[in-house]
Design brief:
Layout (H helix, E strand, L loop, with lengths): L3 H4 L32 H11 L12 H9 L15 H8 L5 H14 L1 H15 L8 E5 L7 H7 L4 E6 L4 H11 L7 E5 L12 E7 L8 H11 E12 L7 H16 L9 H6 L5 E7 L10 E7 L1
Parallel strand pairs: 1-2, 1-4, 2-3, 4-5
Antiparallel strand pairs: 5-7, 6-7
The chain binds S-adenosylmethionine.
């Protein structure tokens, strides 16, 4: 059940977590998924055994890692950038560093508490991610978190280079583990510590941008949407799943209004009443295809808008 954000403590106002709020949650502060014996190399080699076109050379040709990483169009900060557009400066301004324990707690909570939500949204995500471009593609995911979407990339975009951006450093090991488990070659995945309001990649460099449950948390929705448009190539796609405000006049909307300040305070800035669907529609994409669904696993964090915007 997607209940965790409402009950996650803000680093500066710790909240007691009860077993009712986190029925499936067990804190694993020393968890190190990347050191587990799960199928890192075998996931690369299993791809290669299933199809010669999916051969991954990362194990045999380590230098390819260096080359492919160098090919990611990562934007390096330089002195000529204005301060407001410098990714590090914007990161520190819109998402100042949280204490280590909080980042670890939030990452572990997200990893442990989203199983039933992910199961319910799986069919919708499968349809959406089937639109990802394949082999030579560059894909950027904003607010990648623990990487629940990475498993969809291995089917639809097995040869793609994937960049995941998140301001929470502790998400990195979960995202990398998810990438390995999903069969993405380690050389094809890069985690970058940054925010979506200042993406550290070049203009028109991405074939697709993905964001799920992120626009609720960013500081500036419109700036984020402009950044998505900036980094997409012409014809590139933005795939999203976002929870949005309930309809005016409904009981759910009343509850969301009442709980919104609490949610923002305790859930790392997550808003319950954002009209994100309208923001995406008005962002200036050449076209959008947006649908809406209520998910029983998400309780008052409903409805969800999901779809594709085309640059
Ligand atoms: C509710 S989690 C969703 C994570 C993941 N996308 C998923 O679907 O499970 C929100 C994520 O957005 C990240 N986040 C918060 N503020 C952000 C910002 N300004 N830019 C990018 N990501 C942000 C958080 O660190 C967190 O990983």
């Amino acid at each position: 059940m997607y209940t965790s954000p409402l009950f996650l403590p803000h680093p500066h106002s710790p909240t007691q977590i009860t077993s009712t709020a986190f029925p499936n949650f067990k804190i694993k502060f020393n968890l190190n998924p990347t050191s587990s014996s799960s199928s890192s190399s075998s996931s690369c080699s299993s791809s290669s055994s299933s199809s010669s076109s999916k051969i991954c050379l990362c194990g045999r040709r380590p230098f390819l890692a260096t080359i492919s990483t160098a090919l990611i169009p990562v934007h390096q900060s330089n002195a000529s950038d204005s301060l407001s557009d410098d990714p590090m400066a914007v990161l520190n301004r819109v998402h100042p560093p949280r204490p280590d324990w909080y980042e670890e707690f939030y990452a572990a909570a997200m990893d442990a508490s989203m199983k039933s939500y992910e199961a319910e949204i799986a069919g919708y995500k499968s349809q959406l991610f089937a639109n990802l471009p394949g082999k030579a593609a560059n894909i950027l995911e904003i607010g990648i978190g623990t990487g629940p979407n990475l498993k969809y990339y291995s089917n639809a975009a097995s040869g793609a280079m994937v960049v995941g951006v998140d301001p929470n450093r502790k998400m990195e090991k979960y995202a990398k583990a998810a990438a390995q488990a999903s069969g993405l070659c380690p050389t094809k995945f890069k985690f970058i510590h940054a925010v979506a309001e200042a993406l550290p990649v070049s203009d028109a460099s991405m074939d697709a941008v993905v964001g799920t449950l992120v626009l609720c948390s960013v500081k500036d929705v419109n700036k984020t949407l402009q950044e998505i448009k900036r980094v997409l190539k012409p014809g590139g796609i933005y795939i999203f799943v976002e929870h949005v405000a309930a309809k005016d006049g409904t009981f759910l909307k009343v509850i969301q209004r009442v709980l919104d300040p609490l949610q923002q305070a305790v859930a790392d800035g997550c808003h319950l009443t954002r009209e994100t669907r309208d923001s995406i529609s008005a962002a200036g994409f050449s076209s959008t295809d947006i649908k809406q669904v209520f998910l029983s696993s998400a309780s008052l964090i409903n409805p969800h808008a999901y779809g594709i915007a085309y640059k």
